[in-house]
Write a structure and sequence with these properties.
Length: 358
């Protein structure tokens, strides 16, 4: 579209007015640096810049700072606090890599999504300073994938690793906005499954993809850490108006994330893990049909009849991918991570054996 949608224009105007008022009252900004990823060719730096009364003071640096700098006092916050924030629109920031400084600006939602080429970093974890004129310095954690690595995991979040009971609107809203973070529960066995797969493939990337809002990244990061999930970037979306309509498509967001991961890490063959309560089977099936060379296997967590009923008013799953993929693509279904673990490992072993046959 040549012009932004009227809803996006109105939202931008409202956010600018709020930010201007806060600046007049002496507010500064806070840089939230999320976990990023990249190859030896390019890096993807993720984060968000928000208005705040006081600049954020990070804790002392340590391994994987974007996780450890999250304060223990935040564990019992209610989710609604993260959704009543004001983005710092078009706020300048600088990422420092050695003696090199790369400057950019946050987008209309305060999001930092910066791609850096020719960064010169070796494979592994790195911590990069992120600076903004009116904020305390932050540290972005990024994982550079070894070019020889061919294994990776893409995981959904809602009802795959955490029991959010999505997409039930009322209960999902209650879980997100009102319940304390410490009361939310992990799907049994999924953390164990992911840790086992990562131990078998040292240096492999794991990426969490969700239709949830960027606002929830700090809470989800703390939850994943407490529940024993491997560290990895969270690719979320921005709720609300876009340049093309009132709301963005969650399905399109997931599709775009999968295709970008293929572009950013072209050597990786992904294990795609989700659930059958939303649209993961169709999205994964379509992607496997389009890029069978980039998909190693698909794992689907099956929701219970009660969860399915509350999700879409029928006790059985209504979304499947049989029409998209052939018999050669390994697909496993299980109720939780403990049941999925042996099935997925057997499927991956069979898949690798078939690839080695002349």
């Amino acid at each position: 579209m040549s012009r932004p949608h009227v809803a996006a224009v109105a939202e931008d105007a409202w956010n600018r007015q709020r930010a201007a008022m806060m600046r007049r009252r002496g507010w500064g900004t806070r840089v939230l640096a999320y976990t990023g990823y990249g190859s030896t060719d390019t890096l993807r730096i993720l984060g968000r810049v928000l208005m705040t009364r006081r600049p954020y003071q990070p804790a002392s640096a340590g391994a994987h700072a974007s996780w450890t700098e999250l304060r223990n006092a935040d564990l019992e916050r209610r989710g609604w606090r993260s959704f009543f924030t004001t983005p710092a629109i078009n706020e300048p920031f600088t990422v420092v890599i050695g003696e090199r400084e790369i400057s950019a600006r946050s987008d209309r939602s305060g999001i930092i999504d910066l791609t850096i080429a020719d960064h010169g970093l070796e494979p592994g974890w790195h911590e990069l300073p992120v600076r903004s004129p009116r904020a305390a310095d932050a540290t972005a954690t990024v994982f550079v994938v070894d070019p020889e690595q061919t294994f990776g995991i893409v995981s959904d979040i809602d009802d795959t690793v955490i029991t959010t009971t999505m997409p039930r609107p009322m209960i999902a809203a209650y879980n997100t906005f009102f319940r304390h973070e410490g009361t939310r529960h992990a799907v049994p066995g999924m953390a164990t499954l992911y840790r086992d797969l990562m131990e078998e493939h040292p240096g492999a990337p794991i990426v969490y993809v969700s239709t949830g809002a960027w606002n929830a990244v700090p809470q989800l990061t703390r939850f994943l850490r407490r529940s024993g999930y491997p560290l990895g970037p969270l690719l979320m979306t921005d709720w609300g108006p876009t340049n093309t309509g009132w709301f963005r498509s969650g399905q399109d967001h997931k599709r775009a994330c999968l295709h970008r991961l293929v572009r950013d890490l072209p050597q990786i063959r992904w294990v795609l893990i989700g659930d059958d309560g939303q649209h993961d089977p169709t999205i994964y099936g379509e992607f496997a049909e389009q890029r069978p060379d980039r998909v190693r296997a698909i794992g689907i967590r099956m929701l219970s009849a009660a969860e399915q009923m509350l999700s879409h008013f029928t006790p059985i799953a209504v979304d499947d991918f049989e029409q998209h993929i052939g018999d050669e693509m390994p697909v496993v279904r299980a109720n939780d991570g403990y049941a999925m673990r042996p099935l997925l490992k057997d499927a991956l072993a069979s898949r690798d054996t078939e690839r080695l046959r002349p």
